[in-house]
Every structure is written in structure tokens, then in C-alpha cells.
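Lab notebook, bench 4. The sequencing result for the construct came back, and we need a structural model before the next group meeting so we can plan mutations. Quick request posted to the team channel:

Model the 3D structure of this chain.
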Amino acid sequence: MKTSSGVEFGLWGHLEAKHAPTFFILANSLEETLGSDYFRQSGNDLVKQGYLCVTVDIPGHGTELRSDEPEGIETWRVRTNAGEDFVAKTNRRLTEVLDFLIAEGLTDPEKIAVGGTSRGGFLAMHFTASEPRVKCVASYAPVTDLLVLREFNGAEDDALVASLSIAKQASKLASRGLWITIGDRDDRVGTDSAIALARDVTASALAQGLPGEVELHVIAEPKGHTLPAGAAEQAAKWILRQIEKLSV
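Done. Here's the predicted structure in C-alpha cell form:
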């Protein structure tokens, strides 16, 4: 489907439902995300509970890959080198999709969750921080700091790159539910970086007098950068609890 301005998005689930609780899930291209059990993550279980799953192509994938760009996270480095804030642009696209779904009567504006895998988790947390209608976010083996990635070697002095660290959004995430699942030896996106983010968000919640809704699961995973078995199902149960609690 497309919004009125042409933002393309994909849906998966009970498409005939009206005012459905909705789960935005981000990973790569919309076809690969919704077409894969792995990348649908908690969406596999949430659909059984009446949720609508939604996704878009993220930067570096599908229609969001320009002809002169390398694919994937290398796209992100090319864009930040050019001073382009690809996160802000993605947030605007996602907000437009959300507006469209609510206007069309497909989405319940009080029951919105977001999730994302790896690079998609990075964008999912940014979107949650930018969009007050999102109640909670589940991030699966997420990127939390671009400088941990090999693609951003040498970008330590880039102010834009530094500003995109999820830690910069801790004060906004402190008022939402945040679930992080990561393996204990994930050297691709950084286990320690994910742990530090969880602590930052909790510290911000305490400083603001908020109850704090952070769950961090560091699980033995000898394969490194992959989602530990059973994590997506656990996160789905957590999302259901969060939506019911925060939508009252």
C-alpha cells in the first residue's frame, strides 16, 4: 500500500480487521521483513492476538536504496558522510504511515508497538522516541551506537553520527516500555553497548520520577550476532502486557 504522498508500506495479518492493535516491525526491505519468520519476530505471535503488522523499506534496502549507493549499513555511512540524517527521514515516513492507518480505521491509535532486528532495532527505538503514540518497543540484537559498527570506523569525530546514538534518546525512551534482547557475545552490534543503553534509560526514568519499563535480556548465544532462541516469543508476551497496561 501507499500513503497519499507515496510512502510505500507493507501489511501482514488480519487485513480485514478495523481499529486493530498494530506492530511496526523493521529489519530490511518490506518483502524480506514480512516474508520471513525470523524478521517478523514477535509479530508471528502478535498476529494470533489480532495485531496488524506493518513495515517499510529501511534505508539501504528495497526502494530506499539509491542506484549510486552500496547496500545495507554502508548506505548509512554514505549518507552521514554527506550530512544526511537518514533517521529523521525514516521517522517522518513511519509517522506518515501511522497517520494513514489511523485515518483509514485500520489501527487503534491507543495500541501501537514497534520492534526491530539489528539495524531495524536501531530505527525502531528512534521511531519510538520520536512518536508519542508508540507505547513500547522491542529490540532484537539491536544496533545502539553506530560507532560500534565496522562500517563507521573513522567516524568518531562526526557530530551527526554521534548524535544518532540511541543513548541520546534515553530521556524519551524512559517514558515507554523498552525490551532489549541480545546474545552475550555479540561483537557485531555490541553487547556492552546494549547493556549501557538499558542502564541509561533506567537512570533517566529515575531522574524524571518515572517508574521505568526497561527489560534487558542478555542470553548465552555462541553464534554471536543472532537472536537467542525463544526471545521473540517472550517479547511478544511482554508487548501484550505493555499495551494493555499503557493503553488504560
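The radius of gyration is 17 Å.
Will bring this to the meeting.
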